[in-house]
């Protein structure tokens, strides 16, 4: 029987929009097993990024619950929430979010240094960069790397502390189609080897092959099983 990693119940998130309140998520429900690969398909603006930010503890919901291994994320103290973000969750963003003044190696080391896990940080970061095929470019700065290479650095960084949950927000959205597909193949391979669960938000159905479940997000955050034939509209 699979371990339940994340349980999302009746999640609500609103934002002010002029004189009215925009209800982005309105009762969203989602369950994720340990090691499971879940793709969330949906048009731009439908709430995919909002959901990932809430799952990762980058924002808090207005109501509803996110339970991680049975513990409510909303009830965590600020210190515990920071620990959750750093140790349990790995993030891969569309625009890489690498620190330009640090080398690829230093970027991958950063979560370990922030988490006071410096012992062996350089060795682990080097091994991860080797794993994503960038061992020979570990001392290059982000500005010296291609888009695909920068995303590979971001994947290595996301895995640096051995997270249980990987959150990928349009991870190929800033890449050309060919590079994006190669990055996805690598991402799936590396994620599988490390055993983390993954939730990926995307509008591109071509990226979801190999995922255990594909869900389509409707306006209001309702998630429904998809036949992978979704087209952005």
Plain-language structure description:
- With 233 residues, the protein is α/β, with parallel strands linked by helices.
- The protein has a single domain, classed as P-loop containing nucleotide triphosphate hydrolases (Rossmann fold, 3-Layer(aba) Sandwich).
- 30% of the residues lie in helices and 27% in strands.
- The chain has helices at 48-55, 78-88, 104-114, 121-131, 147-158, 177-194; strands spanning 4-17, 20-33, 37-41, 63-68, 71-72, 89-92, 165-169, 197-202, 213-217, 223-225.
- The chain has a six-stranded mixed β-sheet. It has a four-stranded antiparallel β-sheet with strand order 2-1-4-5, with helices on one face.
- Strand 9 (213-217) and strand 10 (223-225) form a beta hairpin.
- Helix 3 (104-114) crosses helix 4 (121-131) and helix 3 (104-114) runs parallel beside helix 5 (147-158).
- It is globular and about 50 Å long.
- The N and C termini lie far apart (38 Å).
- Residues 229-233 have low confidence and may be disordered.
CATH topology: Rossmann fold
Please state how the strands of the largest beta sheet are arranged side by side. 6-7-8-3-9-10
- In CATH terms, the superfamily is P-loop containing nucleotide triphosphate hydrolases
* Secondary structure: number of strands: 10
* CATH architecture title: 3-Layer(aba) Sandwich
Percentage of β-strand residues: 25-35%
Gross morphology is: globular
What's the helix-strand series? EEEHEEHEHHHEHEEE
